[in-house]
Design brief:
Elements (H helix, E strand, L loop, with lengths): L1 H19 L1 E2 L2 E4 L2 E3 L7 E2 L1 E5 L2 E6 L1 H7 E2 L3 E3 L4 E2 L3 E6 L1 H7 L3 E2 L6 H15 L4 E6 L13 H6 L5 E5 L4 E4 L1 H7 L10 E6 L2 E8 L2 H5 L7 H17 L2 E9 L1 H12 L6 E7 L2 H10 L2 E2 L3 E7 L18
Parallel strand pairs: 1-7, 2-8, 3-9, 10-17, 11-12, 12-13, 17-18, 18-20
Antiparallel strand pairs: 2-5, 3-4, 5-6, 13-14, 14-16, 15-16, 19-20
Helix pairs in contact: 3-8
Length: about 325
């Protein structure tokens, strides 16, 4: 009888313990979790519910308080807080994923080869590429439109330098943009050689070319945001500060986040033109769980790599 009573008491204790446990979506155990609290303590387990971490602790602490049908043994793998990119061009990067990737090219010939492959694959009516850097080439001089004119005489080509402060374009693009040796280049440069534009534009004059590039469709814009988001998540980024966005893209981000299609957190800096300034000074700060709109991106100078920055010699 004494053993029966003891068994019954143990049964009640176990039943009460299980009944008092909180049910969550996921429990992770056996991990190396960096809490980044004031003491930079490490933990081994966490409980997750509805996409949020609700508790961390030792394996015993978490298993005592929580239960889940989905328990993952991390086998010692590392877990860090989500990383934040403090200054990037998230949407522009997403658009670049829809265009020809020129990063890592070592010469103009290699650029032409990539553009030819892109043209064959996508059959565009207007070629846009991104990421070239003449500093990676054996001859570290700016390219000219000559090679582009030979390879693409009938289709406009616009290639953005890696820092976004210079472009190289072919004659077709120059003609469509109305750029000649007499075009004014306030706040930048239209490079001239032998009495005609070489195809290199730095900073403000680039806008003359950007105006003729066909605007991306809504489908392309959504693909750009979601493709870029996937890359961010792959690198452990959960929040990005996008420096320079127009209202329509901010609204699109907001709608995708609210529809649970886009999950990345975005701190959005508004491109500081007069129209946008007037609009958002009237609207004020806009903030949701995933989107924070409260600042403008101002432009004060160029960049060193594209040779558009204002520098001073102290010698």
């Amino acid at each position: 009888m004494r053993y029966i009573t003891l068994f019954f008491v143990l049964f009640l204790l176990i039943s009460c313990d299980q009944k008092n446990k909180i049910s969550v979506d996921t429990i992770i155990t056996g991990a190396t979790i960096y809490t980044v609290n004031n003491s930079f303590e490490k933990a081994s387990a966490m409980a997750i519910d509805e996409g949020k971490i609700i508790a961390i602790g030792t394996n015993g602490e978490i298993s005592k308080q929580y239960e889940s049908k989905n328990t993952i043994d991390a086998k010692g793998k590392f877990i860090y807080p989500g990383l934040i990119d403090a200054h990037c061009h998230f949407y522009s990067y997403g658009l670049s994923l829809q265009e020809s990737d020129l990063r890592g090219t070592k010469s103009m010939n290699e650029i032409i080869s990539r553009l030819k492959a892109f043209q064959k694959d996508k059959n565009p009516t207007f070629i846009v590429g991104n990421g070239w850097d003449q500093n990676d080439w054996k001859v570290k001089k700016y390219p000219t439109k000559a090679d582009l004119d030979v390879a693409f005489p009938d289709i406009p080509v616009v290639l953005n330098r890696i820092d976004g402060h210079a472009i190289i374009v072919n004659s077709k693009a120059l003609k469509l943009a109305g750029i000649t040796k007499d075009t004014k280049a306030d706040g930048g440069q239209i490079e001239i050689a032998n009495g005609e534009p070489t195809g290199i534009l730095v900073d403000n004059p680039m806008e003359l070319v950007f105006k003729i590039i066909p605007k991306p469709t809504r489908k392309t814009q959504i693909a750009a945001l979601l493709d870029a988001e996937k890359v961010m998540f792959d690198y452990g980024l959960t929040t990005v500060n996008d420096a320079g966005l127009d209202p329509d893209i901010i609204h699109l981000m907001d709608s995708l986040q609210k529809a649970k299609v886009m999950k990345l957190n975005v701190y959005a800096m508004i491109t500081a033109n007069q129209k946008n300034i007037d609009l958002y000074l009237k609207k004020g700060i806009y903030k949701t769980d995933n989107l924070n709109v409260r600042s403008f991106k101002m432009y004060g100078d160029g960049a060193l790599g594209s040779r558009g920055a204002c520098t001073m010699s102290l010698s």
